[in-house]
Amino acid sequence: MTFIPKPHEIYKHFKGNLYQIVTIAQHSETGEQLVIYQALYGDFKTYARPLAMFTSEVDKVKYPEIQQRFRFELQGEDVDRQTRETDAVSGAQGVAAQPEAPAVHIEVAEEEPALDPLVLEFLDADSYEQRLNILAGLHHRITNEMITTMAIACDIEVNDGETEERYEELKNCLLTMEKFECNRLR
What we know:
Organism: Simiaoa sunii
Domain DUF1653: 10-72
Oligomer: single chain
Protein name: DUF1653 domain-containing protein
Mean pLDDT: 80
Pfam family, one: DUF1653
CATH architecture of the largest domain: Roll
């Protein structure tokens, strides 16, 4: 085992689709650890896969054209964590670890925070139904900033207030638009 996925992290499968970790579970009969994860596309199905298989490397004999190292690779801010954990495990197994370089302080200009992959998918959606499905997938971790971004993209005004109230208001507006307007976005 090389790294352990954490809930809410987004991983890219080597074939290109994105998945979000729900949790790590334990098989009731065998005790084997399972990764429970949800597709961030289509019907947003939920899957279970043994942790060892989830964290395994891509079979380069079967898929020689794939550049990705692992079957699933972490996306977003913590992408270096996967490499660090993998290297730490390799070092613990007797592989010579490289000496750590001295720390260097570098000032970096403050960047705009990157949009959540599901918010980007929401912005690219072709129908109100797709947008509603994506919104439902974001419900457990949605922020006021996400709601504002999505509302602006839909030309909807959502009042200030609690995040849950704003979520429901955005959802209801999308349901109304789906019902009374052409389902295909312009």
